Amino acid sequence: MLLAEPLLRWLGDSVMQAAEKLMGLILTAVAVQMLLSGIRSYYGL
Known about the structure:
Layout: H1 4-11, H2 13-43
């Protein structure tokens, strides 16, 4: 947390926006995988 501002200045806004979008995509993929695993487990597939 202490290095957030210097890191933001060093990387720049566009790199941080790209990193945020990538992390969102990864989080969505993990959520979908967990959902599908739960459905498979529930139905015994």
